[in-house]
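Morning run. Coffee first, then this:
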Amino acid sequence: MDPFLAFLAAVIFVSLIIPRLGPFLSLVISAIAFGLLVGMGEEVLGYVSTGLSRIFSSLAIVVFSGALLAEYLRRTESLERIVADLGRLADKSLLVGGAAGYLISLPVMCSITAYMILQPVVSGLAGKDGENGKRALFMTAACSIISFNLIYPSPVMITLSTGLGAEPRDLLMRGIPISLFLFVLAYILMKHFFPAKTESREIRAPAKMSRSRAWAPLLVPIILILFGGLQERTRILADPGVALLLGAMLCLALERKKMHELIHVASRRSGVILLDLCGAGAFGYVVAQSGLSQEIFRLGHFLPALLLPFLISAALQLAQGSRVVTATVAAQILAGYPLPAVTLALLIAAGAFMFSYVTDPYFWLIKSSTGASMKQTALGYTLPLSLLGLAAFALAAISSIL
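And here it is:
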């Protein structure tokens, strides 16, 4: 079968079976089915194994460290302290929830995990008004995805950096300004869709939690990644795996009495996440070995060069809902595409904002946690994210020209 048609069939198949089988099994089965459709033989199993191992080797330390940090924030009063400190800068639940989502998503390595640990705090900050609480949580979700999609070393950006050969520092230099612009745009959109009816409630900082204990595990990995590479002797500290591992070890040192519990929970949660990511790696690697890239490049001659990566990424996001899967598969398909690696990475990241609807597990989490209707969730989550994706595409295109 033609690789392009086989790919469309495999993507549709994934979207149909993910609700029943989950991401890992669905992606592995679809990878094998795709390989057989395009005429591969026994080598498809080798491609699956290679794809699995490549993702595990690049993300295992990062994901485990992020899961451990997330559990530390959840079990201690660190989260309440961080949100209270942010509340001193802005006394509105919309800005505080957004800033918390934007910041927490980075070290915990998962936008959904960031939302889950922030949800009770942001809900309390928003007060008793239901609509005010919904818009604060929609803002938290949107901003957690902004940093998760655009700022290195999130799994999305690590995948794109590794797969496309983009320099981390260049990704940071261009991704951070775009993400900050999207943060402001998200604030404007949320105020438009859900006008506030009541004032936010102030959250007091926990008396027993010091500011340094709360913020240090969050800031240490970020500082190491940003400044560790300035000198040759400290370059290893800028590696996201090392930086996040040091942040995780700091959590264990600060919470020695609960060390074994933190490690146990982090191991269980990171194992589930890694299985799903490895499934995406298997599917992407099989697709990359099929010759689909050349077919897409040929079809892309009819479209502007900047548009095709964005459209492929958006289609993948609509089909299966996972942003890391979108980045993984798109990076494998588009490796060698005639655009600078950083520009290509940002275009794929922009597409990962698009069409996050019923195939996206985050959509259902937000719907259930806010008590919103399908229409409200689409208006407060799917539509704003898609508008942010269009803005990210425009900014990535403009920055590539400049």
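The longest helix spans residues 3-37. Good start to the day.
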